[in-house]
Design a protein that fits this description.
Blueprint (H helix, E strand, L loop, with lengths): L3 E2 L4 E2 L3 E2 L6 E2 L4 E4 L7 E4 L4 E6 L6 H4 L1 H6 L11 E6 L6 E2 L5 E2 L13 E4 L6 H6 L4 H8 L6 E4 L4 H6 L7 E2 L6 H7 L4 E2 L5 E3 L3 E4 L4 H14 L1 H11 L26 H8 L8 H7 L4 H12 L3 H19 L4 H7 L5 H11 L4 H8 L9
Parallel strand pairs: 1-8, 7-8, 7-11, 11-12, 12-16, 13-14
Antiparallel strand pairs: 2-7, 3-4, 5-6, 9-10, 15-16
């Protein structure tokens, strides 16, 4: 498949293959050699092209997020899996929200060849907030993006996608302080103020600030698996996994009293994913009532204990599918799923693939795995 070349228009795209609505990331492909079913070779992936669009009023920190994350995504030989470029309308210098301007290397034609387009964070203009409309040049640029290109908005740039009609009928998010204004302007879009990002397949939106990092790492994970994403996160000194459903605003990231934290119980649970843990089990380990434990757990993680546990189990299953040849039934048991059917259901819901299909895309090359 084609790999990603990144262009900083702050818009990201992918290659569409298969039927309508099916988006496949650029990844290496394993193909059989000389017709032998169990003899496979790896076909090197091309670099996925990412274009980042910078418009006047862009937030400088957010503008640099796509290049920082995607440039750290590397293949096993150390080569980059994405190429990232930044553009502006007419290739003109861009006025940032701070007291300086930026000079970019490309004009909007960069978007025409991008696999993914990322629109960097731009606070909505008074015109956009009042009328829900965009300047003609911005509308023209967004309409010129190919229908198969993946599009990503960072933070309040979701307003741009909405005004251009790209989010009609979809679910989206943006910075929590502007979700109410967004809902009033675009009633046909389901806005969710309580998540870090929303993945609709081709169109993705993120909340403010660091959520842009989470979304970019999510794309790397979706395209190339958890191992590549985790390595990129380490190079960026970022959290390797914050699920999109996590809350935007967490009251207490670091509890004032470490003895009353749920962190020890989280570690305890991670070491027992294969066991049928209950909420009562976790609260008992923390020496708290279920009500107190649930409240403190949500304050510290932004998630309920059982949702956090389900996400950790799914993440562990993805890791085992990528890095081992264990049968799917054994992986289901190792991750605490009641049976392979439950694991498949979770994969279809949150990954969009069956475990077997995920393993074929991201698993150990050249090895036939058990089912």
């Amino acid at each position: 498949m084609a790999a990603h070349r990144v262009v900083l228009l702050f818009v990201v795209g992918v290659v569409r293959r298969g039927g309508p609505g099916t988006i496949h990331p650029a990844v290496s492909v394993r193909a059989c050699v000389s017709g032998l079913r169990d003899t496979c070779r790896t076909i090197p992936a091309m670099t996925h092209r990412i274009a980042v669009l910078a418009l006047d009023g862009v937030l400088p920190l957010d503008l640099g997020i796509p290049a920082r994350v995607f440039n750290e995504a590397r293949a096993s030989d150390g080569s980059r899996l994405y190429s990232v470029g930044t553009c502006s309308i007419g290739g003109r210098p861009v006025r940032t929200r701070e007291d300086f301007r930026l000079v970019v290397e490309h004009d909007e034609s960069l978007l025409e060849t991008a696999d993914t387009v990322v629109i960097a964070t731009q606070e909505p203009t008074p015109q956009l907030l009042a009328t829900g409309t965009l300047p003609e040049d911005v509308t023209a640029v967004l309409k010129a993006i190919r229908p198969e290109t993946r599009i990503v908005s960072l933070c309040t740039s979701a307003f741009l996608l909405a005004a251009a009609g790209l989010l009609d009928g979809l679910r989206a998010t943006t910075h929590w302080t502007l979700c109410e204004a967004f809902a009033e302007l675009f009633p046909g879009i389901e806005i969710d103020p309580n998540v870090l990002f929303v993945d609709n397949g081709r169109i993705l939106t993120s909340a403010g600030g660091a959520a842009g990092i989470d979304l970019c790492l999510h794309l790397v994970r979706r395209d190339h698996g958890t191992g590549v994403a985790a390595a990129a996160a380490r190079r960026c000194v970022a959290a390797p996994w914050r699920e999109g459903g996590q809350a935007q605003f967490i009251e207490h990231v670091v509890p004032q009293d470490a003895d009353r934290s749920t962190s020890a119980t989280r570690q305890w649970a991670l070491e027992r994913l294969a066991e049928p843990l209950t909420l009562e089990d976790m609260a008992g380990h923390a020496h708290m009532s279920v009500r107190t434990f649930t409240r403190r757990f949500r304050q510290e993680t932004g998630l309920s204990p059982l949702k956090w546990l389900a996400q950790r189990r799914l993440a562990h299953a993805r890791h085992l599918l990528e890095s081992t040849t264990l049968p799917v039934a054994r992986i289901a048991r190792a991750c605490g799923f009641s049976d392979p059917v439950a694991l498949r259901r979770q994969f279809h819901t949150y990954v969009g693939l069956s475990p077997a299909a995920y393993r074929r895309t991201h698993g150990v090359p050249g090895v036939t795995a058990g089912r």
